[in-house]
Amino acid sequence: MADTTASGAAAPGEDEGLPELPNIDERRSALSIIRKVGPYLWPADQLWVKYRVVAAVLLLLAAKVASVTTPFFYKGAVDALAPEDAGAGFWLITGAVGLTVAYGGMRLLSVGFNQLRDAVFARVGQRALRKLALTTFQHMHALSLRYHITRKTGGLSRIIERGVKGVEFLLRFLLFSMGPLLLELIMIGAILWWVFDIWYLAVVVVTIGLYIWFTFAVTEWRVRIRRRMNERDTDANQKAIDSLLNYETVKYFSAEQREASRYDNSMRGYETAALQTSYSLAFLNFGQSVLITAGLVGVMVMAAMGVQNGDLTVGDFVMVNAYMIQITMPLNFLGTVYREIRQALVDMGEMFDLLEQPAEVLDKPNAPDLDVSGGALQFNAVDFSYEKDRQILHGLNLTVPAGQTVAVVGPSGSGKSTIGRLLFRFYDVNAGSLTIDGQDVRDVTQSSLRSAIGVVPQDTVLFNDTIGYNISYGRADATRAEVEAAAKAAQIHDFIISLPEGYDTMVGERGLKLSGGEKQRVGIARTLLKNPPILLLDEATSALDTDTERDIQRSLKAMGEGRSVITIAHRLSTVVDADKIVVLVNGHVEEAGTHDELVARDGRYASMWHRQATEEDAA
User: Fold this and answer.
1) Domains 27-355 and 377-452+532-618 fall in the same CATH topology
2) Which of 96, 476, 505, 556 is the most interior residue, by most CB within 10 Å?
3) What CATH fold (topology level) applies to the domain 377-452+532-618?
4) Distances (CA, A) of 274 to 11, 12, 339, 343
């Protein structure tokens, strides 16, 4: 009666004693979550939304009035068919047929008002969902890189998905099920007291009170397990996404069975909890049936005695039965609705926790846009660490004069990639400053800063869309001719037009349908299309063969003319023409100069150069 799904049961080993009702902190938290949804349903600047909400409430009231008056016409029709009953005279005036038609009309009115209410409110609800989902999506992009690299993407998407669905459920059932149910119970209780006597009301109140207590208590026991099921569901979903994103790695190591076992282990706990949910569901439904049947029988016995004594008519007996059925039908779903509302609040709480997660990197109030005149970069005594006990940069001083190319080389872990992350302001420096044309990057808007910088990363990640879309991502308003020109400069146009669908070819998840070199050239093309005054090349040609690399290097060198370029490289042969080469070791500059100067100095760079030359000769 209470539940139609088997979701939410006791987990293995969990205490299955008396369940706990929500404590005061949980109730306050639930009210806080509901208040957070309020502005989306009652926006201050959207009058049409308020009008629709008010209209929906009025239609709800009309539906309930029609619903609670319907049994009167049922009673009248029965009394009209049994005129010998005392008190049936009034109904004889109308006639059984007319009362039956009126009874049907009231039922239709009740259903019609409810459906019209749903139609009026639908636009309000969908707008609220869209606004809330958009707010969450935008906030996720506003959070720092540090946050995202410490969270699981699959888990985040699951939290957002469940949170939005929780809001939808709350709107449908809290507003249009729980609220109307309470209103209907009050109206029916008043009618029973007025038409019959207070003892009928007393039986109904006791029955409903015991029913609600039993339902909430048992359901609360089940809700605790739903939280754990959510965790297992999230874990299984994350394992599935992680495994599919690393499809090639799984194949490299013949780890299909290992991945299947990891996924199955996560699902096993979910399966166990779901089975226990089915068992507890049977207990909940039977207990509810006992309470409802006891209350129904009690009221009907009182009514039957009243008919026998001549105090009530047969129509009164039928009307009492109709009201009891009218009460029990929505109560049948109370357990499901209560559990789902509690779960919706849990899911929404997780989503609102994301919304309350503070962004690490923020624009200053009224920050101006970056004004790039030449593109000169300056790292002034920069200290930085991702974690407090692991310093990456130590008093870094690095200058990139306007229009020049500076290459940064050094061993792994020396802080080369960190320079790019600070340049894009994914993180703020711990000490010192980073300026562009004398403007501290912390004083300008992040949007203008990132618009002024183009990057070709070591590992180019593409959207699961067309090649044309991925190239045009560099500049959304670019024409097809400009996209093709960028592809030609990146030496990938001929490859694209050789494909059956050309620029409309789908690249697959993360660009898996393209080779590493092809993905890298698409990344280069979209940066060429962006045409920024500052370039960051992070191992930009690492995935290319020698001949293609030579062509791309010429394209990149041409693109760098008149621009400030930071090239992060491992292969030293790609940076010999740089205006300056900086050797980064343990987060500080150990050597700096041109290629010839550094080779002549016979220091660390010269050692790296000779070692790589020897390796290339051996190859």
Assistant:
1) no
2) 556
3) Rossmann fold (3.40.50)
4) 9, 11, 15, 15
- CA 588 to chain CA centroid, Å, is 41
DSSP letters of 71-110? HHHHHHHHHHH-TTSTT-HHHHHH-HHHHHHHHHHHHHHH
Burial class (CB in 10 A: 0-12, 13-18, 19+), 202: middle
Provide the 10 A C-beta neighbour count for residue 371: 12
Written out in words, the top-level CATH class of the domain with range 27-355 is mainly alpha
Return the domain boundaries, the chain.
27-355, 377-452+532-618
Q: What is the pTM of this model?
A: 0.62
Residue pair 93/67 in contact (Cβ under 8 Å)? The answer is no
Least confident of 15-19, 443-447, 523-527, 575-579: 15-19
Q: H or E element: which one contains 167?
A: helix 153-169
* CA–CA separation, 258 and 244 (whole Å): 13
Task: Report pLDDT digits (tens) over 221-268.
Answer: 776 766 777 777 778 888 888 888 888 888 878 888 988 988 888 888
Q: How far apart are CA 394 and CA 383, in angstroms?
A: 5
Which residue type, as a one-letter code, is found at position 221?
A: W
| Tokens matching residue 408 | 């940064």
C-alpha angle 447/443/388, rounded to 5°? 95
The dihedrals phi and psi of 591, each to the nearest 5 degrees, come to -145, 155
Q: Which amino acid is at 504?
A: D
The token pair that represents 92 in the structure block: 């004889």
State the distance between the two ends of the chain, measured CA to CA, in whole angstroms.
75
> 493 in helix, strand or coil?
helix
The CA-based diameter of the chain, rounded to the nearest angstrom, is 122
